[in-house]
Amino acid sequence: MMTSEIWVEKYRPRNLDEVVDQRHVVNHLKSYVKSRTLPHLLFSGPPGTGKTACAIALSRELFGENWKSNFIELNASDERGIDVVRNRIKNFARLAPIGGAEFKIIFLDEADALTPDAQSALRRTMEMYSSNCRFILSCNYSSKIIEPIQSRCAVYRFSPLPDEEMRKRLLFIAENENVNITEDGLEAIVYISNGDMRRAINVLQACASLGTEVNSEVVHRIASFARPEEILELVDTALQGDFSKARNKLEEILLEYGLSGSDLISQLYRELIRRSIDDEMMIEIIDALGEIDFRITEGANEFIQLNAFLARLCSMKKKEAP
């Protein structure tokens, strides 16, 4: 089994047909390839949903063998100042396309990390070189992109990948890499990744590197993620008013899985909204969880704040819906 290669790169889609899900975006991109025209594009959505994969696959289909000569990828989180726009982007945009291509593509990943001044400079650059250059911007939050740039782009929003599509892709990779993965191990990876295919593939490779069967126990320990049933046990114990037992369970989860306070809060929220709890009580619980999350973000002690949340739960009378 090859474990020296990064599977995320090895199984990156080579064409638009290989992109997992996102059919509403892929169909539009295929029409651009067919017509040999392309506006400026803005890809927005959660990480690991195929934004970069779509940009590279689109370039491959447009330019063929010369795609690397007519395509440049810049990560705005590393180089996000105005000098990047004035120098690297302009220098690439000035050059004519190679191999008879109609235009070149500049892919700006994590564009929401660009400073406001850099975005303002980029706006003008997009206009000046639109005759021979197209921009594809990728971001997690389109609200952080200034309105003038958004109005110059066709905006495509990517959604988290469906569980079934992730299962198919993970099984395909496991089969190709001769990885023995159990059904509960597969479900654990899908649960942990929460629609992020890149994270799912990385967790699968990390588990496979141990050379053992990939089951749920291995997955949760590698990914430092508590089991959903343990989170539910913690919540139920607190709602029953047994603070000492709930606090012991909290310590056990934090020590066993090495979770941070923020990670545990995210899991608590995911499990709480899946429970059948009276609306009035759910409002009170989520309000308490949001307050604790804010305190931890501001630098408060994680363990004390999580204990404070358990104390709030213990003070509530359990009122689950029938």
CATH top level assignment of the largest domain: Alpha Beta
Stretches where pLDDT is under 50 for at least 5 consecutive residues are none
Strands of the largest sheet, in order across it? 2-3-4-1-5
What is the helix fraction of residues, given as a range? 40-55%
Q: Output the CATH homologous superfamily of the largest domain.
A: P-loop containing nucleotide triphosphate hydrolases
Mean pLDDT: 87
How many domains would you count in the coordinates? 3
Protein traits:
single chain, 322 residues, alpha/beta, Rossmann fold, Helicase, Ruva Protein, domain 3, Zinc Finger, Delta Prime, domain 3, 3 domains, five-stranded parallel β-sheet, 9% strand
Can you put this structure into words, describing what you see?
By secondary structure, this protein is α/β, with parallel strands linked by helices. The chain folds into 3 domains: 22-157, Rossmann fold, CATH 3.40.50; 163-223, Helicase, Ruva Protein, domain 3; 228-314, Zinc Finger, Delta Prime, domain 3 (Up-down Bundle), CATH 1.20.272.10. Helix content is 55%, strand content 9%. The chain has helices spanning 7-10, 23-35, 51-63, 82-94, 116-128, 147-151, 163-176, 183-193, 197-208, 216-223, 228-239, 243-257, 261-272, 279-297, 302-314; strands at residues 40-44, 71-75, 104-109, 133-139, 153-157. The chain has a 5-stranded parallel sheet with strand order 2-3-4-1-5. It is globular, with a radius of gyration of 24 Å. The mean pLDDT is 87.
